[in-house]
Amino acid sequence: MGLGAPLTPLPLSVTSRLAPELYDHVLDEFHASKSTLSACSLVCRGWLSICRHHLFFSVNLRPDFVNFLRHSPHALATVAPHIRHVGLGGGWMREQQDEFNDIILFMISLEHVRKIHLETWSWTYLAPPATTALLGGQGNIFQTLTVLDLKFITIPSFSVLRTFASQFPKLRELAFDNVTWEEDDDSEADTSQPAHPPPPFLSRFEKLSVCACSNEPILSWLSAAYGEDGRVAPINSLSLPEILPHEASLVGKFLASHPSSLENLELGFLEHNYDDAPAIRNVVGEIDLSLHTRLRTIRIHQLSLYQFPSTPPTPPSSPPPPEISPYVWLVPFLARIASLELSAISFNIWLGGERQLDLIDWHAFVKVLANPLFTKLRLVEFNVRGVEPSMADEVTGWIARRLTDWDGAPEFLKVSFD
What is the CATH number that goes with domain 240-418? Predict the structure, then answer.
């Protein structure tokens, strides 16, 4: 049959006898192609609902889209029920403040939303009605939302953020990325007053991610809530890629409160240099990974090898002794893992030259990888930044040579470059 030959559709006597689930399964495969779904939605009435489900599952609340829904009762009744994920981006001007507040009020009125992603706007843009609704849980979205994702948001105080997040009783995932607030003067608060009530989502909370903002108030808030009535959130995924030295002790206590649930862990410690290496080693030593018997994956961020001199100040010609390496804590930290479920160990490394890799004790790391408990370990990944793309093969060789004594290296070692 030639390429230009017309296609003959199956007769109605055949297609009418096919189960609707077969059509749904085929249309599900097009979930990422809005143009294909739009075309399929015009084929027949029976395909319309499943196409709408995928077309409007995740939407950005642009002014034109919100106005379309508001001014079309038919669209509001047939499109809005399919919306599950909502995004509201930034770029708002002061003269658009009224329009922004209208969109906020529309967003919280939606009935079936499971996730919202709010990015690049300031709380100061909110008018009193929107502020009251957000801080008082006044809207349908507060009863259905399970994922709250905030990025580049400016909030007046942490107490406002805490109150806002506490309005979602079904929340399972909470992500903060570059969220800023002014310092709360909690230190001068009246200690005779009762503490803040624990958030209503605590018993179902599973995933926390904090990036490029202060970990301390967030962890203190959740830790204090645990201590009030003995409840502990079943957190299985925790990502804290930027931990300051003074926060490490609090992180250790927070981790210790979730010994049986944690499965995926990402940690990164900032401000490493030769002078503070002993202090970092001491505070990281307080974190005991042996408690987490269900740990499956661990990723270490902030291994910025390139920023340190390749040799210590004294003597200038000898390699850095292990006791003063900024990463002397790394291998002992990983050596405490005692989970039979561990399947992946990953590192985010900034690197400028091969000699900088020797800040890590590779011989001791190979011994960790050879732990007989790690029967499910299938990935040791180094995500490398700071080198030219043309050096990818060379850098891969640098790392592979340091792991030649690990039997799993040929099969399970991965070096990637982003």
Answer: 3.80.10
